[in-house]
Amino acid sequence: MRVIFLDFDGVLNSNQFFESQEPFDRSLLDLHEEAISELDPKAVARLKGLLDKTGAHIVLSTSWRMLYNFEDIKVYLREAGLLTSQVGRIIGATPRFYDEPRGSEIKAWLDNTSEEVEAYVIFDDNPDMLPDQEPFFVKTSMKTGITGADVEKAQKILGFGG
Hints:
The chain has 162 residues and is α/β, with parallel strands linked by helices. The chain contains seven helices and five strands. The chain has helices spanning 15-20, 31-37, 41-54, 64-67, 70-79, 102-112, 148-157, and strands at residues 2-6, 57-60, 90-93, 119-124, 137-139. The chain has a five-stranded parallel sheet with strand order 3-2-1-4-5, covered by helices on one side.
C-alpha cells in the first residue's frame, strides 16, 4: 500500500489562492461552506492526479483533524473533488502529540498500523520532520501550495517515474 500523509494549509491552499479570491464576508458561511472555500481547486486537482496515478491512500496529518471530525473532512474533500469512488480513500489520521514534531506523529502512525506500507510521501509546509523521513518529505510552501514539481517528486518517491 502507498500512503500520502496530508497537511492542508500550505498544500491544498496557499496565500496565492486566498489573494486571488474575491473578498467576501466569511461570517455568512456555515462551518461546512467555510471549510470548502479554503480548498484551492487547482491544488486539489494536482493531488487528485497523483492519487489517480499511484492509487495511494490518504492519512490526515493536518491540524484540520483537530478542528473538524473525520467524517466531515471526508465530506469536504469529496465535495472539493478529491475523493471519488475510484480514488482517494482516507484510511486514518495521525495521533496528536502537542510537544513533539509532526514527524513523530507520522512515525507513530507508521509504527502502529496493521497495513503493510510499501511507500509513503509526506506533503507539508512545516519542516518539522524526523531526519529519517527526509527522503519521503515533499516540503510545500504556504505561498504557493502544492505545485506540479511537488507532485513529480512525490510520484518518484511512491515509485512512479524515474
